[in-house]
User: Fold these one by one.
Assistant:
Number 1:
Amino acid sequence: MGYIKTSGIVIKEVNTGEADKIITVLTRGMGKVTCYAKSARRPKSNLIAGAQLLCYSDYVLFKGREMYSINSCDVIESFYEIRNDIVRLTYAAHLVDLINDVMQENQPSFKVLQLFLNTLHMLAKTDKSPELLTRIFELRLLSILGYAPYVRGCMNCGKEELQGMSFSYKKCGFLCEHCIIQDEFAYELSTAAAMAMNHIVHARLQDLFSFNVSENVLGELEKLLRRYLRDRLEKDYTKLDFLKMIK
Ligand SMILES: [Zn+2]
């Protein structure tokens, strides 16, 4: 009981009362935590920054009867570059949707938090294609959650060269040109797309973002991951369609 110290990032904010907020924080060790941020909308509040969407902070929380309340917070990174750019913000909103859907309270969350912070850092501070960053995040997130597809080679015969692979949604992995008869609906991939997927699932975190792909390959990954997300999470994520309208 009493006070708890934790760091985390705000993944949802809802205004309540006259000047308060209820925020959801993805924390290092406690999964998603819902917190009351009293007076966080008052201009002089010391919670004004730390109770904003995408703000990463050290928090001191007080465990109340119904929910935690924020006693104090110390902003570590506000990702203001994302908030000031409609395109980056839309991509970040999609990532936030995914996190809100897949994470629960009291679920170990360190790896997801780490992936999320790294992706936001790349989105905010570099020129790396937001589309590619999003695809990396999506596939790696599903992998962390236990939905990693088999992408080291053909899942049927074990062929390791990533040439001529197709992705089987049904079997959740690659099939080579000989084994594709096992799933006539498998999606044929370029070698570069197959290699990108293998990298995203298996690379060490520090190497995760260090590759690039062509526009065509990005298109393949988008098509594949949209369906894969829909199959695994039973929801169609449409927020990014907005960007196609303003392109
Ligand atoms: Zn095969």
Number 2:
Amino acid sequence: MTDSSLDSSHEIPAAAFRRSLANRHAHAAEAMRRVLSSGQLILGTEVSDFETEFAAFTGTQHAVGVASGTDALILALRALEIGPEDEVICVANGPVPTVAAIRAVGATPRFVDVDSGTLQLDVNLVEMALTTRTRCLLPVHLYGCPVDLDPLVSLAESHNLKLIEDCAQAHGARYGNRHVGTSAAIGCFSFYPTKNLAALGDAGACITNDPNLDQRLRELRMYGFRGRAIAEIDGMNSRLDELQAALLRPALAALPAALQQRSEHAAAYLSGLNSDLLRLPNVTARGTAAWHQFVIRSPNRDAIQRLLREDSILCGIHYAWPVHLMPAYKDPGDGAPSLPVTEQACDEVLSLPILPELTSDEISRVIDAVNRTALQQESHSR
Ligand SMILES: Cc1ncc(COP(=O)(O)O)c(C=O)c1O
């Protein structure tokens, strides 16, 4: 099978599994060979080398490989001793796992609305949402665009709160000159196959500059063992798989070039899309985005998505359903909090194709089609 036979030639995919996977055959074979010949299938040198390389990439002292991004969040919350009495500040326009992790440790998510310009946690609303039970701030760098971190770091310091950054979508994103994840006690990453840095299955990592937290995370990911097979604390099994680590290492080496492609696609969209008809993404002043998603907004979102699909341009929606209104997370006591910006965003967001493997001709085709359909819809609704 040739690479070009893996994607139908005309289709522009939202998540290029086939096209990006086709590029990974050689590395996958080599990774499998290395792991099999090492004879170390669990927590061997591939994991420890990947941890060293990922820590260097993010500019942190320690990286701890774990089984998934959700586990990274759970382990971070557990390492910081967040539990059943505690509330954690988070957003509702992101994916479910951030909230699922908070609930998994028995804590209560306290949803705060997002800024209408950036669609990131509205840092001006956080202080008002604090209660005597609030113990932790858990912002998500949604779409790979950094949250405004300095005000959150100050709030965490002045109110004695823990700060965890959910960087699952933001490998390569920066706030000022810091990689995301390094302003908090712990930064959490996912290497789910659609992420900027992708494993070929589930995988994740925590980063930290605190050696005590590094040690605690290592204990927690392996049954609470401290050096010998005796559980010193209540742990679990959440190890990064040796084979996934071996697959992640060449993907990490290729990440800067892939991030450059994403950023060129984003620049083309920002200059080519019609900003009178569509709301284009807005990145926090001190932020450098990693462009995991390129999210536009329109009240005609559903029609635009349908017309683009007819043109073989596949777009995603991140996310259509706000988490605070999902059956699992609706608070039966207080009712749902009022999050007007979040709810409107969920009706309007549309993620355009931005995979590094797309060509500039394909991005131009998307720009023309989006502008044309947005104009059509605008004249229909007049
Ligand atoms: C923002 C965010 N947090 C957490 C996760 C959970 O990561 P995983 O799917 O690796 O458990 C994801 C990925 O889906 C995510 O996008």
